[in-house]
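User: Reviewer 2 asked us to show a designed sequence for the structure in our supplementary figure. I'm pasting the structure tokens here. Could you produce the per-position amino acids so we can include them in the response letter?
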């Protein structure tokens, strides 16, 4: 669809006598992938999210049924085509696409819609909506969280069928002739991947959160996106002009000329700022006075490797291995895991990869591994506790990891350690697995650095003892903050209390670094804090050896490191650790940071001020 046509369509939506310029408004969602983009919206999916509900003549039932079944067949063909086209880039999503094909072929959606058309004499779109509603109720009653979450797939495939019924063509992105911002209730990861080759400025969805897979793909591609904007498909129509702020999650609808000027200026500033920062991606992370700290990336899927290396990661400091388990109904077998880890290690070599063993439970569920709903999952059978409970699963993963070790530079670490006994038990298991592999004649790398995550207060208290048992520590501040401050990291009611700058957290990091260094081991940090420009000077001053973060943060963090000095950041830490409250610390940093790093922080893109207020 050409831009002119988009604009024409948009005017159709405004009632006669409506003001020439609709009132500007701001909608709020989750900033999924940074960048400011300005452009007209192209709604993909049903006709601007709404389709006509029609009663049909009994004589039309067969024709309506055929129209529906044809749309379903085309949806299946589209998904199968995506699977063929992107099998390599989307290896991790293949099971998702397969599930969606199955849903389309399955009785509850296909057969029920056909029955509803025949019984109620309503059009296919409406009948499908009814069928989806029935399926929603069935899913809502399912105790198994894996299955419950699969309702999201039902919605995504139904969206695809609605789009085809609306005659919007086989390709959801084909309409984008001119640069547009795409809007849909949701996009599948496959749709998102294809946006790169089209003239898409960014996208906007009603569903999804910061960690949904569509979001991860968007970030990987550097495609600005805002997700989870309530009712956006009702409130925004094709042709509406919007400004999308991918870092803050704000969407400005019908901006005035003055506002547009402002955002264009911000966009120019951001653009030149990102270009400047991009130059830092491949410079060594060394301070002015020669202090070196490794800057690595956190990833959860092989798809992210290329972006991580492009953004300048010196290795993968945290490979979250959960995805292979949560994306499947079946447990992955040793060969599947081995193939995935081999590819991971080989593609990152000669740089190191730290694979963290399964951290299932807490906010990461998978029914394939028999996670049963617990009242208090964050304090329950999570991470290493789960691995001990299911030695079959643990050993299969360890075998796969060790077998892959000869294809690159492997480090292995274990999550949520809370005592020395757990480390001893891990050592027994790994020794047995290694012995077994040796007996079978399978090669394993000679030196594999083995570490533990420090993310529970008891591990901090015992850090000096634990340090004698392992090769490195990696501080998981996401959990350490949760467990130290008693703040559930996924509970929105206490989210405002989740505080990396709480003096208790900073003292704990200091204690772990000191204990690790006293025992001669390296101390890394891989929580979100590592990629936060507000925390960087403190982490440098605290003496961490490695910071592992979201790939996008790497150039910004490197730039800041290169304009810091070890001496100055150590003095800052002494000053800050003498303070008794987070408020005092924030107040101090709000004054110190812009004075000390005026250029590094001189962009709205980093949003740092909001985190200090
Ligand atoms: C952490 O807890 O800081 C961490 C990196 O692990 P995850 O976020 O996967 O729990
Ligand atoms: Mg953790």
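Assistant: Here is a per-position design you can include in the supplement:
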């Amino acid at each position: 669809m050409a831009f002119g046509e988009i604009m024409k369509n948009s005017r159709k939506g405004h009632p006669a006598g409506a003001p020439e310029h609709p009132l500007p408004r701001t909608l709020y969602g989750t900033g999924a992938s940074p960048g400011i983009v300005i452009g007209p919206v192209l709604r993909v999916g049903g006709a601007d999210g709404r389709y006509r509900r029609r009663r049909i003549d009994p004589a039309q039932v067969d024709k309506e049924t055929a129209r529906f079944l044809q749309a379903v067949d085309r949806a299946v063909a589209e998904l199968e085509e995506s699977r063929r086209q992107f099998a390599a880039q989307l290896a991790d999503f293949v099971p998702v696409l397969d599930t969606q094909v199955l849903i389309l072929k399955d009785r509850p959606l296909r057969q029920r819609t056909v029955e509803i058309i025949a019984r109620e004499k309503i059009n296919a779109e409406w009948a499908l909506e009814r069928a989806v509603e029935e399926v929603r109720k069935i899913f809502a009653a399912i105790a198994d969280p894996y299955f419950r979450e699969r309702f999201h797939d039902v919605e995504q495939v139904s969206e695809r069928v609605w789009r085809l019924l609306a005659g919007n063509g086989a390709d959801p992105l084909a309409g984008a002739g001119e640069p547009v911002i795409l809007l849909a209730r949701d996009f599948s990861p496959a749709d998102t991947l294809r946006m790169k080759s089209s003239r898409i400025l960014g996208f906007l969805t009603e569903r999804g959160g910061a960690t949904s897979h569509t979001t991860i793909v968007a970030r990987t591609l550097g495609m600005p996106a805002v997700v989870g904007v309530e009712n956006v498909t009702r409130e925004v129509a094709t042709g509406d002009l919007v400004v999308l702020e991918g870092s803050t999650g704000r969407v400005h609808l019908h901006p005035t000329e003055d506002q547009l000027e402002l955002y264009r200026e911000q966009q120019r500033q951001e653009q030149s700022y990102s270009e400047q920062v991009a130059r830092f991606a491949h410079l060594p992370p060394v301070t002015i006075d020669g202090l070196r700290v490794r800057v690595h990336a956190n990833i959860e899927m092989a798809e992210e490797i290329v972006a991580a290396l492009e953004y300048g990661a010196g290795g993968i400091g945290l490979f979250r291995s959960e995805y292979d388990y949560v994306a499947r109904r079946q447990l992955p077998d040793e060969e599947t895991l081995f193939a995935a880890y081999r590819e991971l290690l080989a593609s990152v070599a000669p740089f190191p990869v730290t694979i963290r063993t399964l951290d299932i439970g807490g906010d990461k569920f998978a029914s394939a591994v028999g996670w049963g709903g617990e009242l208090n999952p964050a304090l329950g059978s999570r991470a290493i506790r789960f691995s001990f409970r299911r030695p079959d699963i643990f050993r299969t993963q360890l075998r796969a990891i060790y077998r892959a070790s000869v294809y690159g530079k492997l480090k292995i670490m274990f999550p949520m350690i809370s005592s020395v006994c757990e480390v001893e038990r891990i050592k027994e298991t790994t020794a047995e697995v290694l012995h077994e592999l040796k007996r079978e004649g399978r090669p394993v790398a000679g030196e594999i650095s083995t570490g533990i995550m420090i993310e529970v207060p008891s591990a901090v208290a015992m850090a000096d003892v634990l340090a004698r048992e392992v090769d490195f520590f990696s501080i998981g501040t996401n959990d350490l903050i949760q467990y130290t401050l008693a703040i559930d990291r996924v509970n929105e009611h206490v989210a405002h209390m989740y505080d990396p700058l709480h003096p208790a957290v900073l003292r704990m990091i200091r204690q772990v670094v000191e204990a690790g260094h006293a025992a001669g081991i390296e101390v890394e940090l891989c929580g979100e804090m590592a990629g936060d420009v507000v925390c960087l000077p403190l982490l440098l001053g605290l003496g961490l050896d490695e910071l592992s973060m979201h790939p996008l943060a790497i150039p910004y963090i490197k730039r800041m490191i290169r304009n810091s000095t070890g001496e100055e950041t150590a003095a800052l830490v002494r000053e800050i650790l003498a303070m008794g409250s987070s408020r005092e610390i924030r107040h101090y940093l709000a004054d110190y940071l812009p004075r000390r790093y005026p250029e590094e922080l001189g962009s709205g893109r980093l949003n740092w001020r909001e985190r200090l207020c």
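For the response letter, you might also mention the following. Residues 415, 455, 476, 478-479 surround magnesium ion (ligand 2) (CB under 6 Å). The longest helix spans residues 61-86.
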